[in-house]
Design a protein that fits this description.
Blueprint lengths: L1 E7 L3 H8 L3 E2 L2 E2 L16 E2 L7 H11 L9 E9 L7 H16 L4 E7 L6 E6 L2 E3 L6 E3 L1 H4 L2 H19 L10 E3 L5 E3 L53 H8 L12
Antiparallel strand pairs: 1-5, 2-3, 4-6, 5-7, 6-7, 8-9, 10-11
């Protein structure tokens, strides 16, 4: 499974240090709350072209193309790629995934692509500058919203999976069990939406019942003595009644006997 993250200039220093296992005060910089085993850090490697400095490369690339000088601009995007369960060809998996990603987003925009084997599970951080080319003007600009638009996020996993399966000649489980691919290539979740158990199912309203909405949340759960009901008069606008009382009030008034002149 792959997950996407976006970063502004103020966020990239620590993240890049985490990729390359840089440290501060004698400790590794963590991207989130990873548990790093330093004895295995020698197993990490970078599949991207060697950049002398990731930060310098980002600054240079954003200077080569149009990039708005605003604090909210995402200058780096990241695909976090996890090795599928029971997939033994680790190096081949990450190498072919890197080829797929670098071709998709342009190797000239790739910041780094570190594979980490010193954490809980092998994974790759594919970091790149989101450069978008306007088809009408040909102008290149930094725009994460254009590069990673809705269609890109919908079809990414399906196209990535198809690419890997063509390379390896077998099925590659890049999706979690609860996530499926539809016939159109879209990624959909097979999990049923969670519903609150405390929510009561709404009862259908009969044609004979009043259409005015009745707030049943204020009804008493149990009436011990029907002859001694507390109507709960709060103010002149709100008076509490039971459902049965309300229905009896809604029926047409019966003609009094003294008006029966026949």
């Amino acid at each position: 499974m792959a997950t996407m993250s976006k970063f502004k200039r103020t966020d990239i220093e620590n993240v890049c240090l985490h990729f390359e296992r840089g440290g501060k005060d004698g400790k590794f910089v963590l991207y989130k709350r990873q548990a790093i085993d330093p004895s295995k850090s020698y197993l990490n490697y970078n599949l991207a072209p060697n950049r002398v400095s990731q930060i310098d490369f980002i600054n240079e690339r954003t200077s080569d193309v149009k990039c708005l000088n605003r604090a909210d601009i995402n200058v780096m995007c990241l695909w976090l790629i996890n090795l599928p369960n029971n997939f033994e060809q680790e190096k081949e998996f990450f190498k072919h995934t890197y080829d797929f990603l670098s071709d998709r987003y342009g190797e000239q925009n790739v910041i780094s692509s570190f594979v980490h084997n010193d954490e809980k599970w092998p994974h790759m951080h594919f970091a790149f500058v989101p450069v978008f080319t306007d088809e009408e003007t040909g102008i290149k600009k930094v725009s994460s919203n254009d590069v990673l638009n809705r269609n890109e996020l919908i079809y990414f996993h399906g196209e990535w999976r198809a690419y890997l399966e063509k390379v390896f000649g077998k099925k590659v489980a890049v999706l979690k069990p609860q996530v499926q691919e539809s016939d159109t290539g879209k990624i959909v979740s097979s999990e049923k939406p969670k519903t609150s158990s405390s929510k009561k199912q709404q009862e259908p309203v009969s044609k004979n019942e009043p259409t005015e909405k009745i707030d049943k949340t204020d009804e008493p759960d149990k009436i011990d003595d029907p002859n001694n009901i507390d109507f709960g008069i709060v103010n002149l606008d709100h008076i509490k009644f039971t459902q049965e009382d309300f229905e009896s009030f809604s029926k047409p008034a019966k003609k009094p006997d003294f008006l029966n002149l026949d």
